[in-house]
Design a protein that fits this description.
two-stranded antiparallel sheet, mainly alpha
């Protein structure tokens, strides 16, 4: 079996995605156990079945708006079950680029996955809202503490000023009484 192989740049251009995006998807696929044919220097060579799988992933990610991890699981499960009829390639001459449509067999699976992702996102949002409320409560408490500290400092400053004034008044009284007293040498 002598199939034609394509390199990363060619496949990226065919799928109309960046080469770095293609590499990320391939790494994620390899993490899930998918194996690509390796060329010289361990570079990936893409066969037609690899391109079909990547097209399915692109349709799921860009068309259905699901995550890369979920798209990989769906695409790999379709690949293992040989359910290629669930994905329809439209003629590239009728459209500007190749697009994939999803038939009803996979719609339920995609909807369930999207529902799970939606629920997870809602939980994350609720957690963030709780954290935000906690931060707001802490901020209010800190503002109250700061206000109490400022009031105490203001009260202390007022008391200090009052004591300083009293000391100054006492010194004035002492100074004036000293002036009124006659000096001992002036008694005669």
């Amino acid at each position: 079996m002598n199939e034609k192989a394509f390199w990363t740049k060619e496949v990226a251009e065919t799928l109309q995605i960046g080469a770095s995006t293609l590499r990320k998807w391939c790494l994620a696929l390899e993490n899930e156990g998918y194996e690509f044919v390796k060329g010289a220097k361990k570079s990936r060579a893409f066969l037609e079945k690899d391109i079909v799988l990547l097209r399915r992933m692109k349709a799921l990610i860009h068309g259905a708006g699901i995550t890369v991890e979920t798209a990989i699981k769906i695409a790999l499960s379709d690949d293992k079950d040989n359910e290629i009829e669930g994905i329809v390639l439209e003629d590239s001459e009728r459209t500007e680029g190749r697009t994939l449509g999803v038939l009803p067999e996979n719609t339920l699976q995609i909807q369930q996955q999207m529902g799970l992702e939606f629920i997870e996102n809602q939980k994350k949002i609720l957690d963030r809202l709780e954290r935000l409320e906690q931060l707001e409560q802490l901020e209010r408490k800190n503002e109250e503490r700061l206000q109490r500290i400022e009031e105490k400092l203001s009260s202390r400053d007022d008391q200090l000023l009052q004591v300083v004034r009293e000391i100054q008044d006492s010194k004035r009284l002492i100074a004036s009484s000293v002036e009124d007293q006659k000096k001992w040498w002036k008694f005669w």
